[in-house]
Design brief:
single chain; alpha+beta; GMP Synthetase, Chain A, domain 3; SH3 type barrels; 2 domains; 5-stranded antiparallel β-sheet; 3-stranded mixed β-sheet; 8 strands; about 35% helix
């Protein structure tokens, strides 16, 4: 039985979604952090994470969602009812590209590698930077390690709660000092 149109394999679908999400992000002045297609073939979920300096707003998410949803419906290459989710990457944002590790050098993070590095696959510590095709990482357990970028299965920033509390306390003390001096 002949069919009209072309059926895309899942890799092609994911790449096309990424391309369309990238264009929608550019059109609305935000950065595409990541796009993925997950879930079962008969009910996929298209997840798009966007960001911008100062953080994204509900309006940013809504505008990108509206444009992307319209284009996905017109192109109709996802051959099932899908759910589209557009959101901020959150505080513990995923790290997906080399540029992410460069941008967040000095930040606390967790990394999971496909293959062991010095006998270890899960790392928690601080991103030092990039050297060739490796993330240089200061791991809490093994110290400085070199993790191949193409061997990273999952990586996320990690909120340093102690540092956040320390910074909040410093801001609070500064505010008190400024208010005290203002009254004089």
């Amino acid at each position: 039985m002949p069919t009209c149109g072309t059926v895309m394999d899942s890799r092609s679908v994911k790449e096309r979604v990424r391309q369309l999400a990238e264009q929608a992000a550019i059109d609305h002045g935000v950065e595409l952090v990541h796009a993925e297609v997950a879930g079962p073939d008969n009910r996929p979920v298209v997840r798009v994470f966007i960001d911008k300096s100062g953080g994204v707003t509900h309006q940013d998410c809504s505008e990108v969602s509206e444009q992307l949803g319209t284009v996905l419906d017109v192109e109709d290459f996802i051959h099932a009812a899908y759910t589209l989710e557009v959101s901020s990457p959150g505080l513990e944002r995923g790290l997906y590209r080399r540029a992410d590790y460069e941008r967040f050098a000095g930040s606390a993070a967790t990394i999971k590698s496909r293959d062991p590095v010095n006998g270890q696959r899960n790392f928690r510590g601080r991103i030092i930077g990039i050297d060739d095709d490796h993330v240089i990482f200061d791991d809490q357990t093994n110290g400085r390690v070199r993790v191949p970028i193409d061997g990273i299965v999952k990586a996320n920033l990690e909120v340093d709660v102690e540092m956040e509390f320390r910074l909040a306390k410093e801001r609070q003390e500064l505010d008190r000092h400024l208010m005290k001096n203002k009254r004089r």
